[in-house]
Fold:
Amino acid sequence: MRIDVLVIGGGGREHALCWKLKQSPRIGKLYCAPGNGGTRAVAEQVPIGVMEFERLALFAEEKHVGLTIVGPDDPLAGGIVDHFKARGLRVWGPSKAAARIEASKAFAKELMREAGVPTAAFEVFTDHDKALAYVRAQGAPIVVKASGLALGKGVYVCQTLAEAEAALKEIMLDHLFKDAGNEVVVEEYLDGQEVSLHALSDGSSHLLFPPSQDHKPVGEGDTGPNTGGMGTIAPLPQVSEGMLQELDASVVTPTLEAMKKRGVPFAGLLYPGIKLSSKGPRVLEFNARFGDPETQVYMRLLKTDLLDLLDACVDGELGTQTIEWHPGFAANIVLASGGYPGAYEKGFPITGIEEAEQVEGAVVFHAGTALKDGALVTNGGRVLGVSAVGDTLAHALDRAYRAAELVHFEGKYYRRDIGVEALERR
Ligand SMILES: Nc1ncnc2c1ncn2[C@@H]1O[C@H](COP(=O)(O)OP(=O)(O)O)[C@@H](O)[C@H]1O
Ligand SMILES: [Mg+2]
Structure:
């Protein structure tokens, strides 16, 4: 039976989810709220913000939406899933209580300590002077994190003590992240490659995705401030099938079990960010949603019907599902506005997307775009994700970069070294 679906969010992740859902033989009407300049090609645009729970629920009721899928962290942390469920609406995503695993890094760290999940050594502070004393005792390099949601900007990887002291001041005394900085996690600095895991969970069973890798810092060679993510590759060649199974057993399974034991089963997408450090794999954080831009590469590789998977997840029947992937690799290059993650201008016309999509294997996902007087313009820090698939990682990257060069807008900036470290380490 066909089912009408509402996707909540307006970034590259949601465009990729809509793009994949649209391919389901069971999809009826597909809505996206609020969507962006690209989602309208595959979904009907609904001009309601992601935090307007009541209006979204009314829309879902009115349109007889059979499944609502929540993309971003903020509505999940704010309890949108509980709100929909209380109204008797079918919704995919973790409850507010379960989403704390992302919304409170302090909660996640305590959970990992309790469940024996390998993570960077840490302490949690609410008092600035105590945090300062600890940081001074530990010395640099050291990592200071606002515990709450901070748009990917609340983490300070500090190479010197002065940087760490400044970070504590900004978070705890200047309240740069408001209440998100009421608690602070100070943790051990870890070297090594990062890997993103994605596990779809219905609270009892889970299915693991192939390992992927994001590139957080804005500059090439991992320099400059952290962003929401500048580009992704999957699968990450350094993580063998055996390593993936080990990470499943040491990270994903015990975490989901610990959540269940606490009475807050995690149903949705659990996304651990991991460092493959010289001491062994260590979890940096958990996210309670699909990664952005990880989703853009996963949707290119996923063979199984996404709607079937998410439906089974909502019904607690994930154990009956298998997940299949296309062979080969995918890459996604983020084209950002000049100045991002700092201040940047919006409203520049975008051209060349059709040409880019003529490159074999390429698909362009929109993130910060909008239509203005019928023309596509930039409307955010991360503007587009240019994705491509290929038989090898080098092939996928080559196609993605060729396509990325064909897109134009004033101030276009992108990293030219996405996936390079993974290629060189092979
Ligand atoms: N302990 C650590 N050692 C080294 N780098 C870290 C550490 N923790 C975080 N980072 C870096 O900072 C980035 C952001 O940290 P993370 O905990 O994932 O927070 P968020 O994604 O919420 O900003 C990570 O992707 C990683 O590059
Ligand atoms: Mg992260």
